[in-house]
Amino acid sequence: MSIPAVLSSLSVTLAATTSTANPFLWYVTRAAAVSAYVTLSATVILGLLRSLARVSRLRNTRAIWLLDELHPYLAVLTVAFVVFHLLSLIFDPLIPFSLLNLALPLDQPYRPLPVDLGVLALYGLLVVWLSSWMKRRIAYASWRTLHYTSFIAFLLVTLHGIFAGSDSAEPWMILLYLGISGAVGILVLARIFWPAPQPTSASRVVASRRSR
Q1: For position 18, what pLDDT does the model report?
Q2: Alpha-carbon distance 157 to 39, whole Å?
């Protein structure tokens, strides 16, 4: 048998193997991606609720404690799901993603632009996670500025999921995107237009003493 014939036979065999490969990891990838999106969305929503509680001067200590505890917990859970999603992509034989594909927005083997958005979102999430981890070591103003990256990352993740996710056309996934995006949008508007808290009498006294 000639070399071209051998190569042709080998390519046919590889194609057949790939097409009949066990799709288990592809299901794992999809499940991890949806789970990461849900926990990320919950993290963003809880962060916005905590910010609204601060500016509205909510006195319910139990509610504030719950928000403060759940927000970082869900953030860690999001990290776990994202790592699971990336690892399943690397080991999935159906679509050959490499570490370079996941680290750089270049030469993607599947829906290039939406996947590139996912790579950029990953860097945005890394900025938020690292700044939160170093919160006590950096100035509060710097941490807060870096934390705003979470909104950009959330938008990129949403676009990545809509255009790259194989479940995006499913009714339940459409409702999930609409519901989460609507909730985040309403909370962002509420936070932007919430009236600034008026200074209390005690803070006025402190301010007047400092001005003397």
Answers
A1: 45
A2: 12
